[in-house]
Design brief:
Order of helices and strands: HHHH
Number of helices: 4
Radius of gyration: 19 Å
Strand content: under 5%
Shape: globular
Length: about 130
């Protein structure tokens, strides 16, 4: 009887741990997929001249701010979250070099990393309140 109770408790713990890991990492993976999908679009230009550039850079900051927040939530280590987001930004820019009409840019990696930092800072503020 004791063995069954132990096995049941361990099974519940493993199931809870898996569910918890899934709830932390699934949003990260989904959002990384959204970023990848946007990077696969040949041209995201709006034809608005300077505003086009500003809007695209704001999009970079926004999408990586959310990625940074989600990563910080998953790993619970702010510096690691920023590093992981920066690494993903590098791979994203490399990916764009293979998409017709797109190019990879080191400046975009810096902008993405700054966005991730913003997201991590938001997560830190929220997590300290809770």
């Amino acid at each position: 009887m004791t063995a069954r109770a132990y096995d049941s408790a361990m099974s519940t713990h493993v199931t809870t741990t898996r569910r918890s890991a899934l709830s932390l990492w699934l949003p990260v993976l989904v959002w990384a997929g959204v970023i990848f999908a946007f990077s696969s679009v040949p041209s995201l230009g709006t034809g608005l001249g300077t505003w086009d550039l500003v809007l695209r850079k704001l999009a970079h900051v926004s999408e990586y701010a959310l990625l940074g927040l989600l990563l910080a939530r998953a790993v619970r280590r702010p510096a690691l979250a920023v590093v992981l987001a920066a690494c993903y930004a590098v791979t994203d820019e490399i990916h764009q070099t293979f998409v017709e009409g797109r190019h990879g840019a080191p400046l975009d990696v810096a902008i993405d990393t700054a966005g991730a930092l913003v997201g991590v800072l938001v997560w830190l503020r929220w997590s300290r309140r809770a």
